[in-house]
């Protein structure tokens, strides 16, 4: 809409000294002629837009022009800006960038004392593209198809009603209603291959996102197992980062540490335990210990 474009353009001009007309045209996917017509409209509305000629020319606002802010404090606006900037590191979204421009224009201080970067080292443009596609499908209420890779390597074709994108534990997930399982499921985006949006429409189902429904399976009593683990002092720092001191006891004679924890028993658990190599030993329960023994033997045979 033109009104939205005019407001967003005003915010961009407030935040930046000068902007080329061609850049604005590309940002809003309109012609340069339309940009100049918008500038005339802004001038008629009393916003002091100035055009600068020459090599370093462009479009800007009269020095000192700012929008009045009455609703939020400067600290609150900065907190919102930090949150938006942090989320935008993981995916590209025009609306987020537009809101960020508006918020930034209202703050009196532009120094960034905190920056949270959710993106992986080296970036991941393919993941950002996948997120944008899923966000489009969620907004349009269109189903998506993809091939899902389970932790054990099994591949399954899925058709899902996408409801929500979830950023949890530094990873992105899709929470949606799986038409193959007739139930809600949580899908890790890095395991979703050949994602595409189809023409099938769906009606959003009632879910309480504030209650984090994707956590229900994790804490389902049927899936929980109590583990007694001993580990070497050499990895104490790593264990301290994951567990509380109250969960640990130390045998000062042997230098071993013991921890008793409850965790869901699934493929993730065994991968988690094996990630510590020979620095961790599961004492109980016996069936988990036997499973780890079997997995270790399989690994040994593979590399023998």
TrEMBL record:
Keyword S-adenosyl-L-methionine: no
PROSITE patterns, per the entry: HTH_DEOR_2 (PS51000), WYL (PS52050)
Keywords tagged on the record: Transcription, Transcription regulation
SUPFAM superfamilies the record matches: Winged helix' DNA-binding domain (SSF46785)
Domain HTH deoR-type intervals: 2-57
Pfam families xrefs: HTH_11 (PF08279), WCX (PF25583), WYL (PF13280)
Signal sequence, renumbered to the chain: none
Keyword Transcription regulation set for record: yes
UniProt cross-references to Gene3D superfamilies, sorted A to Z: Winged helix-like DNA-binding domain superfamily/Winged helix DNA-binding domain
Transmembrane portions of the chain: none
Alphabetized PANTHER family for the sequence: PROTEIN PAFC, PTHR34580
The protein, known as: HTH-type transcriptional regulator YobV
The organism of origin for this protein: Siminovitchia fordii
Gene: yobV
């Amino acid at each position: 809409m033109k009104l939205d474009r005019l407001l967003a353009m005003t915010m961009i001009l407030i935040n930046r000294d000068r902007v080329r007309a061609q850049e604005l045209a590309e940002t809003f996917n309109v012609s340069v002629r339309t940009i100049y017509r918008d500038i005339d409209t802004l001038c008629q509305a009393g916003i002091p837009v100035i055009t600068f000629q020459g090599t370093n020319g462009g479009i800007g606002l009269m020095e000192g022009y700012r929008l009045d802010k009455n609703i939020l404090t400067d600290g609150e606006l900065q907190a919102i800006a930090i949150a938006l900037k942090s989320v935008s590191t993981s995916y590209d979204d025009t609306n987020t960038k537009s809101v960020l421009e508006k918020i930034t224009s209202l703050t009196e201080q532009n120094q960034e004392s905190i920056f949270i970067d959710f993106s992986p080292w080296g970036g991941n443009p393919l993941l950002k593209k996948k997120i944008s596609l899923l966000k489009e499908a969620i907004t349009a209420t269109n189903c998506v198809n993809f091939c899902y890779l389970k932790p054990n390597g099994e591949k399954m074709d899925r058709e899902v009603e996408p409801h929500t994108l979830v950023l949890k534990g530094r990873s992105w997930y899709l929470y949606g209603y799986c038409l193959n399982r007739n139930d809600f499921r949580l899908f890790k985006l890095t395991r979703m291959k050949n994602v595409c949006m189809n023409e099938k429409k769906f009606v959003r189902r009632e879910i309480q996102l504030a209650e984090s429904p994707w956590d229900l399976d994790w804490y389902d009593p049927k899936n929980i197992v109590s583990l007694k683990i001993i580990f070497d002092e050499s990895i104490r720092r790593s264990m301290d980062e994951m567990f509380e001191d109250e969960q640990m006891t130390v045998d000062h004679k042997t230098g071993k540490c013991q921890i008793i924890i409850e965790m869901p028993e699934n493929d993730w658990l065994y991968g988690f335990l094996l990630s510590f190599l020979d620095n961790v030993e599961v004492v109980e329960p016996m069936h988990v210990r036997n499973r780890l023994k079997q997995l270790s033997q399989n690994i040994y045979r593979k590399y023998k």
